[in-house]
Design a protein that fits this description.
Layout (H helix, E strand, L loop, with lengths): L13 H5 L6 H14 E3 H10 L4 E5 L3 H6 L6 E2 L5 H8 L5 E5 L7 H11 L4 E5 L1 H7 L4 E3 L2 E3 L9 E2 L2 E2 L15
Parallel strand pairs: 1-5, 2-3, 2-4, 4-5
Antiparallel strand pairs: 6-7, 8-9
Amino acid sequence: MTELTAPVAPAASATAALFDTVASPEAAIAHFAARLAVEADVSDVAAALAEGGAGFVLVDTRSDEAWAQGHVPGAVHLPRRRIAEEGTALVGPGTAVVVYCWGPGCNGATRAALEFARLGHPVKEMIGGFEYWVREGFAYETADGLAQLAADPLTNVGRSGLGGSPAAGAGGISCDC
């Protein structure tokens, strides 16, 4: 446990209980660096796609029905359950992969990332999934063409206030984190 500079009696403060067990700075660095090595948020993926020549294959791992409702432009479709059998044919050996599923309440992308890693691919999970792609105001493809909803002002606060600004980056959305 990391020592607190001013110890607080556990019954006196909820904050004290929060820090009853805390990682050392070194352990925290290792943990968060490891997460960044395997995760990317939708804004980072959108920026990489907008730059062109992203150097990775974006894979939508949702069902056929979900794919038909809408998907990230440029993504390829491979439901998670088919990755072990079809992943190598779809994505060349050693090619980097970014996977996504529905959203934060779904671990399908995590399972898909594991499958691609088992196939030998460098892989990242797009945290937030398709739900946050749409909520952050990025365009998506449907059977009728491109669609785009206004950004949910609660998902992304830019320097100009709620919802970022058109100059703030790909699709007018900026994390500013």
